[in-house]
């Protein structure tokens, strides 16, 4: 059935392209001719090119933004060299075509390839081919292209050394570009912080088309790209990152407990226990009726892990029999697929499996949610087969020891983050409305128990319900953007806007939730 869905999408896409291309051919000819001066024609895909649909869909991860009626790019430039990015930006400015940069296309709200405004003319700058990875084991550093997937990076690090790693997220097809620019949270965050905390340098093309590195862009600009969210501060081509030390052998486990056994009580206990565990231990929970799965990565051997668990969380009943001792790179597969039986090469698979429709809402939790609230949330919202998961990811450890202003990501002192991850495969507005109202309903139910003033959200878990931009004198309104901006960035939002004023005062790089230039006092 997923194959049928894909064919239908192709049909919708091709049948709507003829309309949009007919109206835009004249307008965009000058932009195309500008591109053609420096970019080979095979890298420039318009709705009139056969390759356009397949390329557009190649990394669409949320089918809500591939539906008919969604504004689509007038051109996709599949850059293979930095100069192609520079040319696209300069031509875009000259001919009033805005850019949407796409690395892996995982944006929860499709902002890297779609626009909410049906009249907007934009080009997609696709960076999938800019994905070289160079590992320097002696210095424990790497240069990584934005188009590299997390899986490709994990594979390369694992192949270079069994005792090096990089702290990144769990999904191997997410790409480095969008991930690092929004922070990057994963199973090593309690030990080493976010991906963005481990960035040492970057190569960026700015709004003037200049190629900059850390020293030429300056520390404010460099601060902003380490968590300030996608698109606003130029196109990041590549990142120099610090690799971190891990033992040759790490330990993982996955323990399932059912609602009719002990799951609710365990989740309630988990909230205080997991964020206070030793930094070497990451223990997340996935709650999905009828069970809760407790999934752990420990940077050490099974014996020590079992002793820690027996002392700190005896109720879970973890024993040595639950352990699997593996390498760190294998643990990245376990965290994603709950098995160690897959070959490492699964990390290299970038193919876009027939996708799903997606709406995610997320929160940060400061004080444990009481047991009775978990009971009632489960009874009211989760108690049906096939309801989507709620994911709980612990903070604490290194996360809590980094200053909230060290990077734009301010959420350092919470117990954990929570995602209500609604995805579905059925087509049609009925399913869409039902699923979206479900996720919004759970979100409303959680309100008394989560962070407030602001209700804090991680920018990489993009949610357009928080608010979208509007213009004032042809630049993005700062006042309007504050509504969503302070939820993602708290006090760092103003500093991000000040950096934006400095590096992109004309607001060329913009989308529904891009950082606005701070108005002059
Ligand atoms: P995409 O290409 O869609 O880009 C996202 C945003 O960044 C867009 O606004 C885009 O324009 C901009 N952008 C992309 N590349 C850029 C560049 N080179 N320069 C400037 N701007 C750029 N997160 C997390 O922290 N931990 C996790 O475990 C997961 N897991 C996860 C699983 C799944 C299935 C999804 C769909 C998402 C996640 N995420 C996540 C969220 C993920 O980190 C977030 O969506 C990233 O922005 C995705 O980066 P991509 O490059 O894939 O997205």
TrEMBL record:
**Molecular function (GO) terms listed?**
FAD binding; oxidoreductase activity
Its needed co-factors are: FAD
Where the record annotates domain FAD-binding PCMH-type, the positions are: 69-246
Q: What UniProt keywords apply to this chain's record, in alphabetical order? A: FAD, Flavoprotein, Glycoprotein, Signal
Name by which UniProt lists this protein: FAD-binding PCMH-type domain-containing protein
State the similarity comment. Answer: Belongs to the oxygen-dependent FAD-linked oxidoreductase family.
SUPFAM superfamilies in the record, alphabetically?
FAD-binding/transporter-associated domain-like
Signal peptide range: 1-22
Does the record carry Flavoprotein as a key word?
yes
Q: Which domain of life is it from?
A: Eukaryota
